Amino acid sequence: METLGVDWVSPPERPRAKVAYSQGAVDLFDRAARIAKSNGDGGVGVAHMLGAFAGEEGGLMGELKRAHGITSASWRAAVARIGLGDSNGVRLEQAASEAGSEVKSTREYLTPEEAAEALGVHVQTMRGYIRSERLPAYRVAGERAIRILRSDLVKVLEPLVAEK
Predict the structure, then answer these.
(1) Residue 99 has pLDDT above 60, yes or no
(2) What does pTM read for this prediction?
């Protein structure tokens, strides 16, 4: 963070505008939450966020890791050694490693793209199901973002009847 000139120790000022996060940031927050949950911690802290960054290979984080010769495994081990928010460190490393896999598959609400991927159809097909009301969808309040309840995906499936 110091390399980027970010003061991560001081509390941030209250944002004046609504913050919109990219899908990558949402995935990172989800990963941090899974780390906190699997570690038995009450909330997401700095250690959980650092652990969530372990699997990042792209973007700015990937560039920094490559520039400083840091691997995902060494990142997780360093976070565990620091022991931020964790008494034995090893649990944090294990939780960070486990939380890096299949974050999207556990989310209750999906984007149309994620729902299409889950069913193995094109995203435009999924949007057609929404337009024709075959699939219920929800708009995030005040936003254009559409979300689909994972359990509703079964509504677009029809039983296959074998020919006689």
Answers:
(1) no
(2) 0.42
